[in-house]
Specification:
The protein has 76 residues and is of the alpha+beta class. The protein has helices at residues 53-62, 68-75; strands at residues 3-10, 17-24, 35-41, 48-51, 65-66. It has a five-stranded mixed β-sheet with strand order 4-3-2-1-5.
Length: 76
């Protein structure tokens, strides 16, 4: 089983809100997830973030691979 950390879209049409989730690679973008690590809202002022960095580090240590966008979000 290949596990990835990626974004899942949420909110109304036209809004740029995402959940950062851990899921199996073969599932759909908005399908079932293993765990939610936080949320991210893209905006003009660096966006608002609500992130669980401890769980992110745990999933990386177990072998989950983050998407490029998620890696950039957690670097900030």
């Amino acid at each position: 089983m290949s596990v990835v950390i990626r974004l899942s879209r949420m909110g109304k049409r036209g809004e740029r809100k995402f959940r950062i989730i851990v899921k199996e690679k073969r599932t759909r973008r908005d399908g079932d997830s293993i765990e939610t690590l936080g949320s991210f809202e893209k905006g003009e002022r660096n966006g608002s973030q609500n992130l669980n960095r401890d769980r992110y580090k745990y999933w990386l240590s177990v072998g989950a691979r983050p998407s490029e966008t998620v890696a950039q979000i957690f670097e900030k």
